[in-house]
Design brief:
The complex is a heterotrimer. Chain A is 25% helix and 34% strand. Chain A is an alpha+beta fold. A six-stranded mixed sheet of chain A has the order 6-7-8-3-9-10, with helices on both faces. A five-stranded antiparallel sheet of chain A has the order 16-20-17-18-19, with no helix packed on it. In chain A, strands 2-1-4-5 form a four-stranded antiparallel sheet, with helices on one face. In chain A, helix 3 packs across helix 4. The longest helix of chain A has 18 residues, at 166-183. Chain A starts with a strand and ends with a strand. Chain C folds into two domains: 1-31, no CATH class; 42-272, MetI-like (MetI-like fold), CATH 1.10.3720.10. In chain C, a hairpin with a 2-residue loop joins strand 1 (34-35) and strand 2. The chains are: A alpha+beta, B mainly alpha, C mainly alpha.
């Protein structure tokens, strides 16, 4: 049974619905990310779980109990804020100790647990410092320590790394994952950074306009995005919407106009009954000569070519529209050159 | 670098002479040994400073003013801090109307407020004069308290409130342990500013006098209308010193830029 | 849960003001329309038809207008000068400007009594210099009131304007000059229009303030009445509370009309940037 379940939850603000009939299940011990563009509802979902927001409809079940009306301060969830929200008037030690002291833990026990936690986040020796004396990364670690020391039932992160610079972000996310796995604590993580979410999560929920478009392991989403939105979000730039779809000889046939493509049967093509096909720029091939009897070939003309370092990127004009292709080559094709695009049948993904 | 404009500099200098000159002048006249206000003074004497303490009414009304301004300040804090918090933290229907109500004592002419309170608070509600004074001064100080505290709260990261809640603190504990300590300097500055406004107030206090009850500025006013000796100059100097001390206090806490921000 | 707590926070303050301020003022205004049980506007008719009362009204307006005008004239250049100083010097001058604001109005008005009296500093100096033979009678005239009020409100205008000018992007002046404008033209076409809203706000404060000030006219105006001293006279000396309420209402109305008008002008000027 899922540890956390949102059932048909609706959240509205000023009569505008941000989440409607929203459902989410999270298993114990997992790190689940809510990923999506701003306005998609991921932060709203997180704050709902934390208890900062109330649902208009629906239920929030935690560990089998109905938490829907339980106030924030009774939920025992650790929350790490984007702005860290450290108490400016308290030292690092007192910040981390805050939650423990509210739980009437003995001072000796408080001292022990706070120092342990500071060690976990590599901040031993910083106890007497104040937040304004700390760097961004250090403040973030205090915020994490403060949320963890109370032994929360659930850990919630709200874009914790967006205020840090690039290399710090990479190091910190690894730290967060390490701590999470060591403690085995169920975690919900919100971010708009795709790489961040994919690198540390057990599951990722890609959200768009208050709806979860896909909830899966990162590797699965990466290979087989289920909807056009998800595909675009993770970098599939090429789309063809076919008119007809049929099967023949164990293959899926897709026809638009007089063009017919073949696609192999695999999770990527069987996941949807749709007729929209998506491909990554890296997966489409471009050649000047058409090999004989090769399926899924489309003639076109190079419109723009740019240098990416590893490869060249072409925008190729065809009768089905423009396509973006990345390919490693020694010398690039010139603008206006006539080429052939090849769409490998095992790289095509069918999306809703 | 900006080019110096000597004409403008001179103009500014003259304006400041106009502003501060009279105050400097009465500082000098306070040391006049004779009984007539004269500038420059004939000599140097502190007799008029001594005289302040000899006139019983001065000491009594000074005490009244201090008490009224302190007590009124306390009431204003009790009423104003929650109001300022509510106005800063939440958005709700009727917020601008409430804002207007809380600001209104500043907009309504003081003399009109004083009279209206005389008419109704003292007469119709039948409250004693002292109560009228306390109420009147609380009304004066309330908008200052609210404005300064709301200003402190405008820079407040309310996320730390949510952090405290998530760690298990109740709303009231959060307010006292987390919000108040972080607006402490704002509150103290508010107290100082409001106190000065209340202490110096004439418009309202002038209606709230009675047998044996009066505030210090009103007593001064009466004295000036009847006597014209350097005692007033001496009192003025002492008051100015107190004002300077207050200014230092406010500068320390909020910076004088408070007065230029609108 | 949230809403209940919210109103609990606001209620005491609002209730307090309602009972001790809003209601008394409302009732004061209302009372002017009733005399001995029946509806009447006699109080206003009396006020507006008696030349004695009208003179007081006129004196009040005159003094306030002159005060406002002179304050702007003196305050604007000073504010401009201060706003362009280095932080340190600016701080010192602002502190010096704020200081008079925080001292008691009794002290400030008193200082002018010392200067403007028959045997005061001004007369003694002028006589000593041989410029006049008999002492000038300035004290207890509207002129003395104006001087006292200008002294009272000038710091207010300076501080308001400095605040406004500080918010003007210094790059704007440089941009104007880079496009060919002279120092003066840049001031006229950039600084002046942008300070307008602040100037208006400051003017309202000064005008309304001088309209309703009590201490300065009481000490420096003598028998020349203005609305505020007249109100006091009626309330306390003459015990004519009906007339006092009429005067109070007129003061409130004028105050709010002026503020309203100025607000309209300010918002009209604002979109022009």
């Amino acid at each position: 049974m899922a540890l956390l379940a949102l059932e048909n939850v609706s959240v509205a603000y000023d009569n505008q619905y941000i989440l409607q009939n929203f459902n989410l299940n999270i298993e114990k011990g997992q790190l689940v990310s809510l990923l999506g563009p701003s306005g998609c509802g991921k932060t709203t979902t997180l704050r709902l779980i934390a208890g900062f927001l109330e649902a208009k409809e629906g239920r929030f079940l935690f560990d089998g109990k109905d938490y829907t009306r339980v106030p924030v301060n009774k939920r025992n969830f650790g929350f790490v804020f984007q702005s860290y929200a450290l108490f400016p008037h308290l030292s690092v030690f007192d910040n981390v100790a805050f939650g423990l002291r509210l739980r009437k833990v003995s001072e000796a026990e408080v001292k022990k647990r706070v120092m342990e936690m500071l060690e976990v986040v590599n901040l031993t020796g910083f106890e007497k410092r104040f937040p304004k004396e700390l760097s961004g990364g250090q403040r973030q670690r205090v915020a994490i320590a403060r949320a963890l020391v109370i032994k929360p039932d659930l850990l919630l992160f709200d874009e914790p790394l967006s205020n840090l610079d690039a290399n710090l972000r990479v190091n910190m996310r690894v730290e967060i994952r390490r701590i999470q796995q060591e403690l085995g604590i169920t975690t919900v993580y919100v971010s708009h950074d795709q790489e961040e979410c994919f690198s540390i999560s057990d599951r990722v929920a890609i959200m768009n306009k208050g709806v979860i478009e896909q909830l899966d392991e990162p590797a699965v989403i990466f290979k087989y995005p289920k909807t056009e939105f998800v595909a675009r979000f993770i970098g599939f730039t090429n789309f063809i919407t076919f008119d007809e779809r049929s099967e023949h000889d164990g293959k899926i046939l897709l026809r638009i106009g007089d063009v017919v493509f073949q696609a192999g049967k695999n999770p990527g093509t069987l996941q949807s009954n749709g007729k929209k096909c998506a491909l990554r720029p890296d997966d489409v091939r471009v050649t000047t000569e058409a090999a004989e009897k090769q399926e899924n070939l489309l003639p076109g003309k190079v419109k723009v070519s740019t240098f990416l370092g590893r490869s060249y990127q072409y925008v190729v004009e065809t009768k089905l529209g423009d396509f973006t292709v990345n390919q490693e080559m020694e010398s690039p094709y010139r603008n206006g050159e006539n080429v052939y695009l090849h769409f490998p049948q095992d790289k095509m993904v069918l999306v809703d | 670098m900006q080019e110096k404009n000597p004409g403008l500099a001179l103009f500014t200098f003259l304006v400041f002479v106009f502003l501060l000159g009279p105050l400097v002048i009465i500082t000098f006249t306070s040391f006049e040994p004779g009984t007539v206000l004269r500038f420059p003074p004939d000599g140097f004497s502190l007799r008029w400073y001594e005289n302040i303490f000899k006139v019983k009414m001065f000491l009594k009304t000074f005490g009244t003013s201090i008490f009224v301004s302190l007590a009124g300040n306390l009431f204003a804090l009790l009423l104003g801090i929650p109001a300022a918090y509510a106005l800063s933290r939440f958005s709700f229907k009727g917020k601008s109307l409430l804002n207007a109500i809380f600001i209104s004592p500043v907009l309504i002419p003081g003399i009109v407020m004083g009279f209206a309170m005389l008419k109704y608070v003292l007469v119709t509600y039948d409250l004693p004069i002292y109560a009228g004074l306390l109420i009147g001064h609380t009304v004066i100080m309330l908008p200052f308290i609210i404005r300064v505290v709301a200003s402190s709260l405008s820079n407040f990261d309310f996320a730390i409130e949510e952090a405290a809640l998530s760690l298990g603190a109740g709303r009231i504990a959060t307010f006292f342990k987390i919000v108040l300590p972080n607006i402490r300097s704002g509150i103290i500055a508010a107290i100082l500013i409001a106190f000065l406004e209340s202490f110096n107030n004439v418009d309202i206090s002038v209606f709230m006098t009675g047998p044996g009850v009066s505030t210090f500025p009103i007593q001064l006013l009466t004295y000036v209308e009847n006597n014209f000796d350097p005692t007033i100059a001496a009192i003025s100097v002492l008051l100015m010193i107190i004002t300077i001390l207050f200014m230092f206090g406010i500068e320390r806490l909020m910076g004088l830029s408070y007065f230029t921000k609108r | 849960m949230k809403n209940k707590g919210l109103y609990l926070l606001l209620l005491p303050g609002v209730l307090f003001l309602a009972v001790f301020l809003v209601i008394p003022i409302a009732l004061t205004i209302a009372s002017t329309f009733y005399n001995e049980g029946s509806f009447t506007v006699q109080g206003y008719v009396t006020f507006l038809s008696d030349p004695y009362y009208l003179k007081i009204l006129w004196t009040t307006l005159r003094v306030s207008l002159v005060t406002t005008f002179v304050c702007i004239l003196l305050g604007f250049p000073v504010a401009y000068y201060i706003s362009r100083l280095t932080v340190r010097k600016k701080g010192i001058l602002l502190a010096l400007a704020v200081f008079p604001l925080l001292t008691s109005s009794v002290v400030r008005s008193f200082s002018w009594m010392v200067i403007l009296g028959k045997k005061g500093l001004l007369n003694s100096s002028l006589q000593w210099l041989g410029l006049i033979e008999k002492p000038l009678e300035i004290l207890y005239t509207p002129t003395a009131m104006m001087i006292g009020m200008i002294h009272l409100f000038l710091p207010l205008i300076i501080i308001t304007l400095v605040g406004v000018m500080e918010n003007i992007d210094p790059d704007l002046l440089k941009a104007a000059e880079s496009l060919g404008a002279s120092r003066f033209t840049a001031f006229r076409k950039v600084i002046f229009p942008l300070s307008m809203p602040g100037l208006i706000v400051g003017s309202i404060l000064v005008f309304v303030g001088s309209l309703t000030a009590y201490t300065t006219p009481a000490l420096l105006g003598g028998k020349q009445g203005v609305l505020s001293t007249f109100l006091y006279q009626n309330a306390v000396t003459l015990n004519d509370w009906h007339m006092a309420s009429v005067i109070a209402t007129i003061m409130i109305v004028v105050t709010f009309v002026v503020i309203g008008l100025m607000n309209k002008v300010a918002t009209k000027l604002n979109p022009k940037g």
